[in-house]
């Protein structure tokens, strides 16, 4: 479940589909006037001309490679944890490999700790790797910048993979406790490294694009508008494709674990990840690099505090109503007070309050995502156990989950070149809020499929769905890797949920990356992106609390419950945030046009709002052009 931008100019890119809607309904706008922050595009042209995406720079693809390699190494190892922890060594094996004669009914294994321990460790891994992005986001935004943070933590992540390889060596596997201890250590180290990378690759990949909105004449003679917003949307589609292309590394890992053993299966992703630091260093001169902005978190909390104070009441209903009033943020603005009576703690301007408002609005959208990631978490583990109860025909049960990234790789070009352009040509505003809502509904449909399938497995095999009856489920070869009396259903039938969840990710997960980038103020992009990723950790925590029902006999009920929850939350999400679609222009414009003379903690020389297309003080710089400013 394991990221393209430019603060130089990307921060002024409006949400164009919604801008068209806003303009068409606002008769007070001069249609022939040029839209600020564009290269000569008028409001009328924006209403009537087709939007297309721009070409992406080389530096974007260099960042994409970093994420591709990191995801290959992550999924190429984490996808094996279920069997590695749950099942014991197969007969005659010292590495976890399955004897050739046993591959029709056996799966690889190593530690033999059972399903509950496997579930617990895998859930902690998912939780931890999505908590640490907060650390990486704060470090990048306040101390090192994104480039240096990614480089340093890529070395940390590499060290974790080396430890993981050591945990699977034959000598370590002879003592299960040693191997388990090294595995736990590697999960911690990889979690810190991968999490801190994840918080920064997403914004860094989009900030490589620095283009302005402009007109272009195609060979056909059609005049179109090259849209930064559409370019960012397309960027994240292909960035997510790179993530999933990297995660298909788990395909080879499944066969390597079964045929050669786990230490080989873990070694290959480690060798691929070795390339990441080299690509970062060699590509340094091509990157658009944003320097750290300094700590503004304290000022952010102070703004929230000033706004909250008048709204707090012993009556919670009254407090909620006050918080939803348009003037809620006014007490935090310097302009709210008379001259000479501005509180000393207010060291920011009105524009910064708008930035905080935009950040809080974006973070509110992300708070619904744990329920989406609960559905995703099922394909990341429990459905592998479901597959193990079906007829394998020589297919490793943990191989099927790779259909998720494969389906995403296949569908993304279809969405980017056919579906989304078709909707834009028809004037259909398939906005971020609508796309995320669709993601919830499709994820729920995937869980319905999984629930129905599990019920059929329970009915067609006496060894699944109920407590195993020893007389009916006597183990072959003295190992529980040979799942006796499997369901006659072919294992590939389980592919449905993986494909449906892949479609749900295109709607919800990719859009969340886009939303986090376009809504985050330039100085808090990594922090906001990490907050959006934190919701996966929250989902893991909820899942961990459900350990008692994460057992095979209860899978039918579990999958069905997640389907209902996903649909209910999807409805609530849409009705809660449908108004945000109408405020896209306002939210995206905040914090982009004022000529600031310092960070949030410094009082600006002139609090008058000065409208500009680019904020020169906070624009990113190419490293090769840095003189006496921050050098990374």
UniProtKB/TrEMBL annotation:
<feature type="transmembrane region" description="Helical">
    <location>
        <begin position="555"/>
        <end position="577"/>
    </location>
</feature>
<dbReference type="Pfam" id="PF00854">
    <property type="entry name" value="PTR2"/>
</dbReference>
<dbReference type="GO" id="GO:0022857">
    <property type="term" value="F:transmembrane transporter activity"/>
</dbReference>
<feature type="transmembrane region" description="Helical">
    <location>
        <begin position="399"/>
        <end position="423"/>
    </location>
</feature>
<feature type="transmembrane region" description="Helical">
    <location>
        <begin position="435"/>
        <end position="457"/>
    </location>
</feature>
<feature type="transmembrane region" description="Helical">
    <location>
        <begin position="151"/>
        <end position="172"/>
    </location>
</feature>
<dbReference type="GO" id="GO:0006857">
    <property type="term" value="P:oligopeptide transport"/>
</dbReference>
<feature type="transmembrane region" description="Helical">
    <location>
        <begin position="491"/>
        <end position="515"/>
    </location>
</feature>
<comment type="similarity">
    <text>Belongs to the major facilitator superfamily. Proton-dependent oligopeptide transporter (POT/PTR) (TC 2.A.17) family.</text>
</comment>
<feature type="region of interest" description="Disordered">
    <location>
        <begin position="1"/>
        <end position="35"/>
    </location>
</feature>
<dbReference type="InterPro" id="IPR000109">
    <property type="entry name" value="POT_fam"/>
</dbReference>
<keyword id="KW-0812">Transmembrane</keyword>
<feature type="transmembrane region" description="Helical">
    <location>
        <begin position="263"/>
        <end position="283"/>
    </location>
</feature>
<protein>
    <submittedName>
        <fullName>Uncharacterized protein</fullName>
    </submittedName>
</protein>
<keyword id="KW-1133">Transmembrane helix</keyword>
<dbReference type="InterPro" id="IPR018456">
    <property type="entry name" value="PTR2_symporter_CS"/>
</dbReference>
<feature type="compositionally biased region" description="Basic and acidic residues">
    <location>
        <begin position="1"/>
        <end position="23"/>
    </location>
</feature>
<dbReference type="InterPro" id="IPR036259">
    <property type="entry name" value="MFS_trans_sf"/>
</dbReference>
<dbReference type="GO" id="GO:0016020">
    <property type="term" value="C:membrane"/>
</dbReference>
<feature type="transmembrane region" description="Helical">
    <location>
        <begin position="360"/>
        <end position="379"/>
    </location>
</feature>
<feature type="transmembrane region" description="Helical">
    <location>
        <begin position="237"/>
        <end position="257"/>
    </location>
</feature>
<feature type="transmembrane region" description="Helical">
    <location>
        <begin position="178"/>
        <end position="197"/>
    </location>
</feature>
<keyword id="KW-0472">Membrane</keyword>
<feature type="transmembrane region" description="Helical">
    <location>
        <begin position="527"/>
        <end position="549"/>
    </location>
</feature>
